[in-house]
Amino acid sequence: MSQATTDALLEVEDLRVAFAVGGREIRAVDGVSYRVEPGQTLAIIGESGSGKTVGCRAIMGLLPAAAMISGSARLRGSELIGLSDAQLRKHRGSDLAMVFQDPARSLNPTMRVGAQITEAIRTHRKLGKPQAKAEAVELLRLVRIPAPDRRFHEYPHQLSGGMRQRVMIAIALACRPKLLIADEATTALDVTTQAQIMELMLELQAELGMSLLFISHDLGLAASYADEVVVMYAGKIVEQAPAGKLFGAGGTVRMRYTRALLDAIPHIERAAHTELPVVSGRPPDPADLPPGCSFAPRCAHAADDCLAKAPALAEHSPGHSWACWHPCENGVAP
Amino acid sequence: MAAQLPDMTTTLAPGAAPALPSLVSARQLRGQRVARALRLWVPAAILVALFFLCFVWPYVYPIPSGTVGSILAAQEPPFSPGHWLGTDPVGVDVFAMLVYGGQVAFEVGFAVTAIGMVIGGLIGLAAGYFGGWTDTVLSRIIDVLIAFPALVLALAVAEVLQPSELHLIWALSVFSVPAFARVTRGSTLVVRQLPFIQAARLSGTRNWRIIIKHVLPNVLPGIISFSLIGVGIVVILEGALDFLGLGIQQPKPSWGAMIARGQTVLTAQPEYVLIPSIVLLIFVMALNLLGDALRERWGVR
Amino acid sequence: MSTETAADDKRPLLSVRDLVQEFVVREGGGTRAGVVQAVSGVSFDIRPGETLGIVGETGSGKSTLARAILQSPRPKSGTVSFRGSELTRLRGRQLLAARRNLQFVFQDPFGSLDPKWQVRSIIEEPLIAYAAGDRQARRKRVDELLDLVGLDPARYAKRHPRELSGGQAQRIAIARAVALEPDLLICDEAVSSLDVLIQAQVLNLFEKLRRELGLSYLFIAHDLALVKQVSDRVGVMYLGKFCEVGPGESVYRQPLHPYTRALLDSIPSTEPGAGRKTTTLRGEPPSPVSPPSGCRFRTRCPRAADRCAAEVPEPRELFPGHQVACHFPLTEPADPAAAAQATATHTTATAPG
User: Fold this and answer.
1) Does A264 reach chain C within 8 Å, measured CB to CB?
2) Looking at CA atoms only, how far is residue B294 from chain A in angstroms?
3) Judged by CB atoms within 8 Å, which residues 121-160 of A form the interface with C?
4) Most CB atoms within 10 A, among A108, A109, B104, C147?
5) How far apart are CA A146 and CA A274, in angstroms?
């Protein structure tokens, strides 16, 4: 996987994003590289401020003009960074599509749901109105919305959160993209609805032969649904491995931050009132990153070298990369 | 997978990640900081300078008095010796008129705005915080006041009262009070819903204390930046009233009256209109820009 | 659901019976579109020193329940007895006095702090409102409270909320809430908007306060694992009613209500591939304006039968302290007619792989 093959669907290399705000430089994404293979599910996990969302928006060209972006993101060989809006529009929808967190705000409340889907269809394909409508109803059926003909005419506020998210997915799939990016797409949903939507996305992925890149703060989602997991902290990737290598029996988490995340998640098997292993402090200010490892100020196992120099992300074990001077020895989940 | 940058070939320990250079130049960051500061201090400085000119200067330097001698020779163009902005057709020095007119502008502008802020603000706070019947009654009163067409009311007031600066202030307050009441009520409605107000109630704090200590400080930044724009509007309204002959009467000058008198000779001697207009423009723009900069600082939307 | 057992010799700290809260839904123009009964007859007790966790999804009514207990706004009907006083009948000063020992922590850590106030004033506010000591005593207490929540008074007392992180802001809110040494703390999604690592810090703080101050909690969240970890007993709400209430371990190991089972199955676990569970709940939550007749969960329940539509299930105790409101709880076989109907229409995902 670390060979420089050219058959990856999305290849991101050294992506960096910075903003100048109030006279300070905010390093949102600080040198991130990863690949998404065709048909693969990649999860990017991080807390707020880790740069996970900014990185993907940079790829889609959705950042404000004031953002400074460097690095490369190649979709089947063609470079996406630095393209103009008109050029990107050719890729958006047909090659890659994005589903956002808050369906209430991503859908136009004054337009009927069906109209929003047909609009997406007709932007990329030359279809007449009746064909576009038929296609839209098919899409609604594809995302498992019951009574799609009726729903076609409804407004977003008449649908529940889960249904609105399905509509968002339908819009995203309008032109059968090769890569679907889901940016915290289930965070605002109830847990039962979240499970439904994740199942749906995986089924669609299999049916349509898509790759899925989902961004979340929830390690559990990554463990349950992803093939490959990337963990980000303070704008950098700190650990990357297939899900099977990280979680569950036989899983070894190496980087201290990933270990801390795993330990801090409420596990239902834990007895009530157990004291959680706590990491003090908070993520570094992206305008003022520490010189060494970004996690070192909070890490219980930090040594002098951790504070002095930043470890590079390297593949220390086949398929499993991490950036840590003193990784966990045997990081088995409790 | 460490990125190798050509100009960073210092001796790195194996496995260490090189520090990546800035994407944003230091010059760009400095420029941002400077621009932000300028946006606040330049208009503030202009206003302070105008204030100084109108209120302090007359006590320090002698204002040129009018020309003496024959009325036929009274009028002098700008840059004449002793009268650097010239004199008007009857010999009164233009610069003197600007200075005294400016006093009127400041006085009327800030007085009307202050009255509006205090009275209108109280009405708006009460209506917004208590809601219900209080809000309904107060809002209807405000609506009635706003419904009056501005100049018609001013005309009426001018007919009833003798035109003078004080009466002008009362007349214009009829507009500023409902304007401030509306704005304050809107802000209060928003702030009232915020969780910290409910938290204050749950902490046991009484209503009046919540209004003064919680609602007011949060509503104030918006009111203050609105008030700066308000001063500008009032000065323009005052100018319009003077122009119509309803405001300040001769011989006391005002910028609006100067513009009015100047229009008769607009084509021949445009400076009599241009000079007060430019000063008025600078004054109002400085107020607006200062209001914008303060809004930016205080995060008012 | 009453949770007093024979062995309970302490009077419950909080006793809620048949609580109902409604609000009117209006159309854009202000006309009445309907009435939503957000809380429909909820009853429970909290004993001193106990943490009751309430878990529910959107529309379950859990947040409305919390506010109804506080009487802001007052519930439509039902009783709320706190330390022996009936809160629904108290007004003005009396309500204020009774509520002194009942405090609240909000979901949005920054929203609940006045951005214009200093941290010290924020924490001092309840002390001033209840006239707890003179200025010097209050200041001392504020410093004590800051220490209690793990923030150095010298560094934090004079700050403003915008200079704090989410976790620090929530600690200030907690410090304010415990300033008057309340008996019961209601936490409404108090950690839901915090990052995982910070969330763990704040949860540990709750535990510390529980131990050191003997606090009882009513902990409301949508995350079942979180609620179970923090609570002694767990109540599951759906559309305004309790489905199941019982000791946390019991509810987890032996869920009785199909909704509880569905919630447990939906939790993404950190076992790879385990996410492909056998039952994902079908359908959408019904409209709260006109909930289904009988059992409200029946439209999404794989075990629903005719009886579920006809009759509202009453809570009954199947295990010690563990009650369920269901005609066909998971320990009993489903109605055979329902089973046939359910297999025809319910979604099963692919087997775990």
Assistant:
1) yes
2) 15
3) 146, 160
4) B104
5) 43
Instruction: List, in sequence order, the alpha helices (H) in chain C.
Output: 62-69, 92-99, 119-129, 135-148, 153-156, 166-177, 196-213, 224-230, 248-253, 258-266, 306-310, 336-345
Which residues of C lie inside 8 Å of B (Cβ-Cβ)? Answer: 70, 72, 96, 99-100, 103-104, 106, 108, 111-117, 125-126, 128-130, 173, 176
How many residues are present in chain A?
334
ipTM for the whole complex: 0.84
Q: For B292-299, which contacts have Cβ atoms below 8 Å and span 24 or more sequence positions?
A: B292/B39, B292/B225, B293/B39, B293/B40, B293/B43, B294/B40, B294/B221, B294/B224, B294/B225, B294/B228, B295/B221, B295/B222, B295/B225, B296/B36, B296/B39, B297/B40, B298/B221, B298/B225, B299/B221
Dmax over CA atoms of chain B, in Å, equals 96
Burial of residue B143 (CB within 10 Å: 0-12, 13-18, 19+) is: exposed
- Complete DSSP assignment for B163-186: P-HHHHHHHHHHHHHHHHHHHHHH
Shortest distance between the Cα of B202 and any Cα of chain A, in A, equals: 28
Q: What is chain C's length?
A: 353
Cβ separation of A198 and C275 shorter than 8 Å?
yes
Contacts of C195 (CB under 8 A, 6+ apart): A47, A48, A217, A283, C166, C167
Convert the pLDDT of each residue in A238-252 to its tens digit: 999 998 888 877 778
* Residues near A105 by beta carbon (within 8 Å), at least 6 away in sequence: none
The torsion defined by the Cα of B51, B52, B54 and B60, in degrees rounded to 10, comes to: 170
What are the extents of the domains in chain C? 14-101+182-345, 110-181
Q: What is the mean pLDDT of chain C?
A: 85
Cα angle B285-B292-B27, degrees, rounded to a multiple of 5 = 105
Q: Choose among B128, B124, B136: nearest CA to B193.
A: B128
**Residue A2 at interface with chain B, using a CB cutoff of 8 Å:** yes
CA dist C208 and C215 (Å) reads 10
Q: What are the domain boundaries of chain A?
A: 252-334
Could you report the per-residue pLDDT of C62-75, keeping only the tens digit for each? Answer: 989 999 999 988 89
Residue B111 near residue B119, CB atoms below 8 Å: no
What topology is assigned to B91-298 in CATH? MetI-like fold (1.10.3720)
**Whole-prediction pTM:** 0.84
Mean pLDDT by runs of 10 across the 334 residues of chain A is 63 91 85 92 92 90 88 89 84 84 83 90 85 90 88 87 88 88 88 86 89 91 91 93 83 87 86 85 86 89 87 87 85 43
- Calculate the alpha carbon distances from B28 to A64, A68, A192, B23, C171 in Å: 17, 12, 48, 10, 38
Chain A residue whose CA is closest to B17: A312
Q: What percent of chain B has pLDDT over 90?
A: 27
**How far is Cα A66 from Cα A68, in angstroms, rounded to an integer?**
6
Cβ contacts of C57 on chain A, cutoff 8 Å: 190-193
Question: What letter does residue A334 receive in the DSSP assignment?
Answer: -
Burial A283-310 (b: 16+ CB within 10 A, else e): bbebbebbebbbbbbbbeebeeebeebb
What does the pLDDT look like over C85-131, one tens digit per residue? Answer: 999 999 888 888 888 999 999 999 999 999 999 999 999 999 999 98
B56 touches chain A (CB under 8 A): no
Q: Which residue type occupies C314?
A: E
- Vertex C156, ends C150 and C161: CA angle to 5°? 105
Supply the DSSP symbol for A63.
Answer: S
Query: Are B232 and B59 a contacting pair, CB within 8 Å?
Result: no
CA distance B227 to B233: 10
For residue C40, how many C-alpha atoms fall within 13 Å in the half-sphere facing its CB? 24
Return the residue matching tokens 């003193």. Answer: A326
B265-269 long-range contacts, CB within 8 A, separation 24+? B265/B89, B269/B77
